[in-house]
Amino acid sequence: MFRPLTAILLVLSHFIPASVAGRSRKESFPAQEIFSFPPSNPVFIENLLPLPDNRILLSHFGAPGPDTAIYVLNSTTYPASVSIVGWLPNSTSQTGIAALGENHYAITAGIVGTNFEFIKGTGAVYVIELKNGENKAKVVDRVPVPNTINLNGLVAIPPLRGKHSKGKRSHILLSADSRGGRVFRIDLKARTAKVELTDAKLGGDPSNPEAGSIAITGVNGLALRKGQGRFDGWLYFANSAQGIVGRIKVDERGYQVVGKKGKVEVLGWITGRVTLGNFFDDMDVDEQENVYVGWVTERVLKIGKGTGKQTIVLGPEVVNRTVEVRYPTAVKVGLNGKKKEIFVAGGGIGGDGTMLGGQVIRVGI
Ligand SMILES: *[C@@H]1O[C@H](CO)[C@@H](O)[C@H](O)[C@H]1NC(C)=O
Ligand SMILES: *[C@@H]1O[C@H](CO)[C@@H](O)[C@H](O)[C@H]1NC(C)=O
Ligand SMILES: *[C@@H]1O[C@H](CO)[C@@H](O)[C@H](O)[C@H]1NC(C)=O
């Protein structure tokens, strides 16, 4: 059922990063798997978004189509339960998720080809309305993104305040086109999608062809800092092919800041060579500017604000580890600022390459 992945499974186990532990302090972080799809229905979780009512919206990759289910976890109980709250028409895979405000969410989706890419012309942003505590989502819009074969990490620029403001809902999205090594700016009101951010640090790495589909997967994860109320102008990103996490300046309308001020700042590098089994996936940044990035195949890395100090918060190096993450695809900082927790999506591929089912893990940080 998940044919594109099988090609990479065989090679995964051969590329374990050397001396990961050497660069990272050993600490203990309480972690709990709150949900896992069963091996009999091994959905590959691609991304996640905590909702204000304590539920978690999921996106997933590699469904048969012609429509994809919108999965929501109810984590009131342990383990959490999953429900299908709606369907995205004409799609076989979903990628980024962003909160727009006023119970509206954007999900990018399309029809996947043979190498994880969207077949050209099928990528789109779906806007859904999902009210707190309700189990039915309504697809209220679909804005096509025609000139791309990839839409990946997704963020919504907070709505402008003051005289330009009408309502509290975001309508500007930034979407990572991993294969194009660039970021689209999508305006849901004007219904336009244009390439906006370009930089060598967003691109792939043609000098490392052994990394296969990862060598051509540049900017992957995107994130904005949480909790400040106002957008601080930094777009954080993870680049799979180059094995870096960085940030780049955008203005409050989601346009790239050019010139000296627009220079990309690299915040951290991956340990070891980038391979099909050693790369960064999607990420998030907390209020204190610490970055958390999914590090395939079995880790989540924290990169400390300012210091760049790297700490493994989920993975074999964690002291008294209780949970193993399977192929971490995404991280989201929890909405309860006092609790200091992150939610991690595991795609679901086990260490031996078997597809066991996507999982969601809560980690206290
Ligand atoms: C790990 O567990 C042991 C045994 O319960 C405990 O003594 C130790 O303090 C724990 N280490 C950390 C860093 O939590
Ligand atoms: C789905 O795709 C088909 C074929 O391209 C098209 O006729 C139909 O209108 C699409 N449906 C939606 C809801 O986009
Ligand atoms: C979540 O689960 C709890 C406990 O079973 C239930 O009371 C609540 O109604 C559920 N929420 C939704 C939105 O279904």
TrEMBL record:
Signal peptide residues on this chain, from the entry's feature table: 1-21
Keywords, ordered alphabetically: Signal
Coiled-coil zones: none
SUPFAM superfamilies on file: NHL repeat
InterPro entries associated with the record: 6-blade_b-propeller_TolB-like, Hetero-Diels-Alderase-like
KW Signal (keyword) present: yes
Tree of life domain: Eukaryota
Designated name of the protein: Uncharacterized protein
Organism: Podospora australis
